[in-house]
């Protein structure tokens, strides 16, 4: 409850005209001087909790959540600092390699159900902070459950080929003429928030179709449709104001008074409601400029 | 003017207390009744359900306008809270009889999990009942922060239920 109040405090302050200036991509990260605090913010922005925790009652971040995809069922791994079943023995280089190149310390490739095609754009600073936060969490000994994926998609040795085709490493491309707020919004949507993982359609190899970025997907998580969030007036959310988007990200209410579900409520409570108001506004500022994708 | 509006205020808040008490009473008595689907026709049930959900959405819109300070009024909040409360009390006993969801009724968004996990659904619906009762109580005053807090509780119960039990058509 106090949590909601403080959130309201933020938004009311904002409505009263007290909006703080938007945050730069790497500096002034919420959390100040404490790497763990800053990392917690990145952790929330990237929504790690949902996929890496089996259920509401299961040990936090110990993995095991089933992610059903058209290619089979994947089980998320343990990312607690446990040395045997978690990622406790990892160096920063190991961590960055996993997040940016989709490779485990033993050199094997991760299935792209782990959204490294988005995380690859995360800044060095954010990756360092994120690791600091994860290292500070309680270790849980819980072995990973093998994925249930049918051939040929389950053939891990094919993954480097997939990665060569679809993984564009490095930062997000320059965007001349865009302001800091828009850049921050793009970073939160495309890199940290990995919104396109659910909201963009995929090709037959399971890679996000960037020509229809955020244009909705017929088979998102659990094989269920996920809405188009481009600026398309009919198929997308082109009729929403930036304020409508920011408010939805804060409490989950759409402009018609409905409340989002189908997994998005979880995203709101785990991730977007925990961002600063300025960051939610940055996301909105970016989303209203996403080119329309019709149906 | 001070005296008059003060008296007015007292009368008004008394009226509201009585009004909300009677709403509570009506709700309690509807609880006491045996569960009664609004109709034996699945399509009619689904339609009624949609109307009830829509009315709750409209109510939330009204309350949000007040909470966000975007032209909403306290009267709108009270109307909205009453509508929410009324609809919320119907969910479990009247609006979700078996065989009225996806696969049975064309265009329904009610997932089979509702009936497969009925106790969990009931719990989620009860959360809305509690939250909208709380909102009605908060709305007897004019403290924006406490109304906002209850509004947030209602919103969380809406979203929580939709996460597990609704599949949008798109």
Automatic annotation (TrEMBL), chain A:
Keyword flag Membrane: yes
Subcellular compartments: Cell membrane
Region Disordered: start-end pairs: 210-234
Keywords attached to this entry: Cell membrane, Heme, Iron, Kinase, Membrane, Metal-binding, Repeat, Signal, Transferase
Record field: transmembrane: none
Main location: membrane
Coiled-coil ranges from the UniProt annotation: none
Protein name, as recorded: Diacylglycerol kinase
GO molecular function, one term: kinase activity
InterPro entries linked to this entry: Cyt_c-like_dom, Cyt_c-like_dom_sf, Cytochrome_c-type_DH, Membr-bd_ADH_cyt_c
Cytochrome c domain: residues covered: 34-138, 180-291
Organism of this sequence: Skermanella stibiiresistens SB22
Superkingdom of origin organism: Bacteria
Signal sequence, renumbered to the chain: 1-24
Pfam family, one: Cytochrom_C
GO terms under cellular component: plasma membrane
TrEMBL record, chain B:
Posttranslational mods: Binds 1 heme group per subunit.
A Pfam family reported for this protein in Swiss-Prot or TrEMBL: Cytochrom_C_2
Molecular-function GO term, any one: heme binding
Signal peptide extent: 1-32
InterPro entries: Cyt_c/b562 (IPR010980), Cyt_c_II (IPR002321), Cyt_c_prime (IPR012127)
Gene3D superfamilies: Cytochrome c/b562
Amino-acid positions noted as binding heme c in the UniProt annotation, renumbered to this chain: 158, 161-162
GO cellular component, one term: periplasmic space
GO biological process, one term: electron transport chain
UniProtKB keywords: Electron transport, Heme, Iron, Metal-binding, Signal, Transport
Protein name as catalogued: Cytochrome C
